[in-house]
Amino acid sequence: MSAGTITLTNGSAVVGGTGTSFSTEIAAGDFIVSTVGGVPYTLPVKSVESNTQLTLVSNFTGPTQSGAAWSAVPRVALNMVTAALVAQSAEALRGLNYDKQNWQGIFSGTGNVTVTLPDGTTWTGPAWNSITTSLSGKAAKGENSDITSLSGLTTALSVAQGGTGSTTESGARKNLGLGNSATRDVGSAAGTVAAGDDSRLGTVNGKSGGTLTTPSLFTSAYSPNAGNKVGMQSFDTGTVGGVIGRTSFQYFNDAGYVGARRGGSTNIQDMAIGIDKANGTWVTWLFSEGGNATANNGSWVNNSDRRIKTNTRPIESPLEKMKMLRGYTWERLDNAPPGQGFIAQELMEVIPTAVFTGGTTILDDGTEIKDTLSVDVAGAAAALHHEAILALMEQVEDLKKKLDSFQSGS
How big is the CA angle at 319 (ends 317 and 325), to the nearest 5 degrees? Predict the structure, then answer.
């Protein structure tokens, strides 16, 4: 690393230095190397004006950076690197040419051929043609003397020798342990066997269930042109956050899915609902094991169109209602993480429409809390706080008018 630091400016060829010795460390035609934003830049030097200023051959294209560390690279050093790269490339190409020559000799040569190894030494051995020629006529010398050539048999081979042990069909079936299904015709009547395209294999009617050991795909018979498909898949993934199983739905080239993702141990980290678009974009909604939900590529939004609402009216006395509410943090008595926000019973006194009755919540000690209350925190807070701010703004305007009147002496 060279002494001092440098300043690089986007779009400028001038390089400034702090604590540098450009005049003694570098000359025109040399290079400076500096890393900016994690990207290394090798920059050729056009001229050196002083110990603290030099000019590049072309304007700097990276982001402006000051206080950057740098290294001087003499032109001769970079030339040596280039020469070494050329030599190594030539050596690699020479090896590829040897490779082609070697395979050409092995596949098309006769007798022995000589191949050149990567270290420059040679090896001599038989070509493919020589191997097949030497095997010709060897069949009669095997353990079964009835095999006189590789192209024919004169007697039946035993099962132990890879044959059937018989010269008749029935004898072969008996020796091979084949049952009577081997001679049955294909059909759907009693006494026949089913073929691979048997219509009975294309339905689940009459089946009692079982275990599928591979991913399964179901296509729609009602809309074949749309490419409708429903699939069920399980995955053996070693990646935290990887999908371990899902049900997918395809419509043309878009796909939607519902699946479970693994955690760092033997736990399920979250459930995911997603849409994979044909153009390569995707969106997901995650429902974590801790009870929270996340819209990864967007936000949870509510319909708020004036055309679908009636009896709209501003919140009255917002400042007084603000006093009736407190913001809390808490820990839960059920299997849920800590949280923060409003208490439903307090919010009901202020904005009853923001409180909803849900189902039953089971506490850690087994206690059942029926009709658990839930709140629209975002809607309530936004409406109440905004109206309170407007009320405060009105008070500020009144105070400004009184102050102006007081200052003018009227």
Answer: 105
**CA–CA–CA angle 106, 108, 110 (5° rounding):** 80
- In the chain, where the domains are located: 5-73, 96-135, 136-185, 216-295, 306-392
The predicted-structure confidence for 344-401, as pLDDT tens digits, reads as follows 999 999 999 999 998 898 999 999 999 999 999 999 999 999 999 999 999 999 999 9
Pairing of strands 328-330, 293-295: unpaired
Backbone angles phi, psi at 220, to 5 degrees: -85, 130
Strand runs (DSSP E) across 173-220, as ranges? Answer: 216-219
Helix ranges restricted to H, 55-210: 75-108, 128-135, 169-175
Which residues share a beta bridge with 65?
A: 8
Supply the DSSP string of 25-55, one letter for each residue.
H--TT-EEEEEETTEEEEEEEEEEEETTEEE
First-residue to last-residue Cα distance in the chain:
74
